[in-house]
Amino acid sequence: MKAYDYLVVGAGLFGAVFAHEAALRGKRIKVIEKRDHVAGNIYTHKVDGIQVHQYGAHIFHTSDKKIWDYVNQFAEFNRFTNSPVANYKGKMYNLPFNMNTFNELWGTKTPQEAAEKIAEQKSKVELTQQPRNLEEQAISLVGTDIYEKLIKGYTEKQWGDKATNLPSFIIRRLPVRFTYDNNYFNDTYQGIPIGGYTQIVEKMLDSPLIDVETGIDFFENKNQYLKDFPKIVFTGMIDQYFDYCFGELGYRSLRFESEELDVDNYQGNAVVNYTDSETPFTRIIEHKHFEFGNGDKGKTIITREYPAKWKRGDEPYYPINDVQNNSLFKEYADLAKKENKIIFGGRLGQYRYFDMHQVIHSALVTVRNELD
Ligand code: FAD
Ligand code: UDP
Fold first, then answer.
1. SS3 for 318?
2. Which of 52, 131, 223, 304 is buried most, with the most CB atoms less than 10 Å from its CB?
3. Nearest residue to 61 via CA among 142, 175, 147
4. Is residue 217 within 6 Å of ligand 1 at its C-beta?
5. 145 C-alpha to center of ligand 2: Å?
6. Ligand nearest 355 Cα, by number?
7. Is residue 177 annotated as part of the catalytic site, yes or no?
8. 305 Cβ partners below 8 Å, 6+ apart?
């Protein structure tokens, strides 16, 4: 076996940034990936000339110019602005919650009218100063109508739990705006890489100092890897790494159901959320709209996203960062500190609801701490 400096477990964004940066610093890296492709959950591939986001809609957004410049080294980005719409029982509402949404719901026309409507709804509910859960947080931000129609059903499907049991930070991801602005993110920079995300990871891993092997599960040979490599960057599940010794962390999984349709334009938007509680899926994405209709004429690909309970062996798409899981994670993190051979990184290694820009930031900090 070649003399490697690092084994990177997982060819997702964290593993790829780490490997790329370590190779730039002259290190030799072996990357193993259990799936049959690189790029982790940002993997995209072409069908009918359309870049399909295999593991759900991915829109890059950041306010950090350094991160934006960093990712732009690996792809040119288009000017896509995420503006999902919500379908609640057949009626369409703009997202995130903004003057368009308020007008569609109540006919309010000015920010003052909308603010008064929300204040009136809040005044009828008993709210604590500090919201104790997602329901209280949502009502205190946007009132009861939006909570009932656009948040409650979607959230309870997505997380498989009552909004009163869920942490409030989840809903604070979404902007609330008193302007007619349907941009889902507040960030300065936003877009989709022209030609998809996979090329970004491929370019990061394209170095004579990096060897990549897909279809390899670390756990099939854990002890051997620990003997063979001086250091390991692990981007899989931290609880699985420690054989669930303190118990399982909570995850939420998803099932993606894709369809190729012989129409040019199925839903007129990249993302449509279904916010009622009866529809079993949370959203439908129509992939061609991420690249402004690029693709073969008369064809479109759509994907329905069904939330699913996670059990061992399923894909852990979301960490459930509630108080109980965060305190269990702390036990694993304390154990991880004692393993000076292993670095835990990424959404699963750090058990954090990270977006892509946060993963890149975290990987760059990790590399600097490790090698500079
Ligand atoms: P991953 O992409 O999960 O990579 C980890 C890799 O490790 C995987 O490929 C996995 O197969 C591999 N692995 C795990 N265990 C093993 C093992 N034992 N052996 C070998 N390999 C292993 N972020 C945004 O910024 N914008 C968005 O719009 C957005 N939308 C999202 C939508 C969905 C549905 C989901 C689930 C996430 C979304 N994200 C979004 C978040 C984004 O996907 C993550 O921030 C990012 O992909 C995490 O990168 P990672 O390297 O930490 O993890
Ligand atoms: N959410 C909602 N209604 C929507 C969209 C989102 O209530 O139409 C809530 C839901 O709880 C979700 C959270 O806002 O989990 C964060 O949404 P985001 O779109 O950021 O979720 P992700 O893309 O990470 O699945």
1. strand
2. 52
3. 175
4. yes
5. 17
6. 1
7. yes
8. 56, 254, 255, 256, 281, 282, 283, 284, 285
